[in-house]
Specification:
Blueprint lengths: L2 H26 L3 E9 L2 E3 L2 E5 L3 E8 L4 E5 L3 E5 L5 E6 L4 E6 L12 E7 L1
The chain binds copper (II) ion (CU).
Copper (II) ion (CU) binds next to loops.
Length: 121
């Protein structure tokens, strides 16, 4: 094996190991905001969550009374049972207002159970 082949092999190995490591390091350096979102008849607490563009939002979903849902169109749809918290991670890549609502019928006020995530520039 010539020395050029050895150098080329080392460079290929460095790329194969280095790229995933760099991606992982980038992901871990994102700002993470942890928010506990309580769900109860018929509201979310808090009803509005503000994050900065580029942040990672880690939502801890807790149903306080009956089964509720957490739905953001095209992003998430999670069923949450009392005593069984769920977690959703959202990367806030684009500024805007993203409305969420309950996706499980939970009683008379179900349709009013809404909230929003505001992603600020
Ligand atoms: Cu509901």
């Amino acid at each position: 094996m010539r020395w050029q082949e050895i150098v080329a092999g080392i460079l290929v190995a460095a790329c194969l190991i280095g790229l995933p490591a760099a991606a992982l390091a980038y992901q871990n350096h994102r700002e993470t905001r942890v928010v506990t979102l309580e769900m109860m008849q018929w509201e979310y607490r808090p009803a509005e969550i503000r994050v900065k563009k580029g942040e990672q939002l880690r939502l801890q979903l807790i149903a306080k009374d009956v089964v509720h849902g957490f739905q953001v169109d095209g992003i998430a749809n999670v069923e949450v049972r009392p005593g069984k918290p769920e977690e959703v991670i959202i990367w806030a890549q684009d500024a805007g207002v993203y409305r969420f609502r309950c996706s499980m019928f939970c009683g008379l006020g179900h349709a009013a159970m809404v909230g929003q995530i505001v992603v600020e520039e």
